[in-house]
From TrEMBL:
Keyword Electron transport: no
Molecular-function annotations in GO: IMP dehydrogenase activity
Top-level taxonomy: Archaea, Methanobacteriati, Methanobacteriota, Methanomada group, Methanobacteria
Protein name in UniProt: Inosine-5'-monophosphate dehydrogenase
EC identifiers of the protein: 1.1.1.205
PROSITE patterns linked: CBS
Gene expressing this chain: impdh_3
Ranges annotated as spanning the membrane: none
Enzyme class label: oxidoreductase
Ranges where the CBS domain occurs: 7-65, 67-123, 131-189, 227-280
Length: 280
């Protein structure tokens, strides 16, 4: 299958110069996790900017400083398996599609590869061979700021919620965290005392340094208030193709994996499943 048959053509982009607020507003409005960045009034791709870029750099305002420059791109005429290889090798989930003039014509994601290509295969391999087993979990009564820090430590885009019986009861994604947060500015005061040089009897002079820093501030809600409770799950023995179809139907990029005894054993993401597309 060619990229042009799997990509999204109605792609939303931002341009440089621009600022954080423009990106965040557009992401919220369009429900996008990543936006291609084009140069000025042109369609020439110069970068990509993600939700993670905004979250991890709260002090930076300019798109040019937040975005990833010279991004990996694809051509409409490329085979989807080649794009899957690019995603796997570069640990990315979304690739802008450009024409011969480097102008933006679409975007293709790991979910697109799963929904448009992998569902049309017949791969009997079990998803236990593709899932990740180190998955962040948290109590459903955990404050959002604590849950967010836990998710960040794992370098993932989601965290699973457990109830009082340690059973899976929800899933919370990076998108959910952004919806319940805002960037605030805090000013801290730092003082130091320095004696006057050459005079041991002189009064010490005090210098004051004011540091202004931005950070994410979350609402007072707990994980259970925000997490999606109707969680789609798969069995560790579920076939790759069947799991791909489940993702497409539910329009989700990740599914918790339950073992044969009903316990949580892992998480399979679209970016994990596309490895089966390359190996086919």
């Amino acid at each position: 299958m060619l990229v042009k048959r799997a990509m999204s053509k109605n792609v939303v982009s931002v341009s440089v110069p621009g600022n954080r607020e423009e990106v965040l507003d557009l992401m919220r409005k369009e429900d996008k996790a990543v936006l291609p960045v084009v140069k000025g009034e042109t369609k020439i791709v110069v970068g990509v900017i993600t939700r993670s870029d905004l979250i991890n750099n709260p002090d930076e305002e300019q798109i040019a400083m937040l975005m990833t420059k010279n991004p990996i791109t694809a051509l409409p005429s490329e085979d989807v398996r080649d794009v899957a290889k690019k995603m796997i090798e570069n640990d990315i989930r979304r690739v802008p599609v450009v024409d011969d003039e480097e102008e933006l014509v679409g975007i293709i994601t790991s979910f697109d590869l799963v929904a448009q290509a992998l569902t049309k295969t017949d791969i009997d391999d079990a998803i236990e061979n593709y899932m990740i087993t180190t998955v962040p979990t948290t109590w459903d009564q955990t404050p959002l700021n604590v849950a967010f820090e836990t998710m960040k430590q794992f370098g993932l885009k989601s965290i699973l919620a457990l109830d009082d019986n340690a059973k899976l009861c929800g899933i919370l994604t990076e998108t959910d965290f952004i919806a319940e947060s805002e960037i605030i500015s805090e000013r801290s005061e730092h003082s130091s005392t320095v004696g006057t040089e050459g005079d041991k009897w002189s009064w010490d002079s005090t210098s004051v340094l004011y540091i202004e820093k931005n950070r994410l501030k979350f609402t007072k809600k707990v994980v259970g208030d925000v997490a999606v409770s109707n969680v789609e799950v798969a069995n560790s023995k579920t076939k790759v193709t069947d799991c791909a179809k489940k993702m497409k139907t539910a329009h989700i990029e990740q599914i918790p994996v339950i073992g044969v005894e009903g316990d949580l054993v892992g998480l399979v993401r679209a970016s994990d499943l596309i490895k089966a597309l390359v190996e086919e």
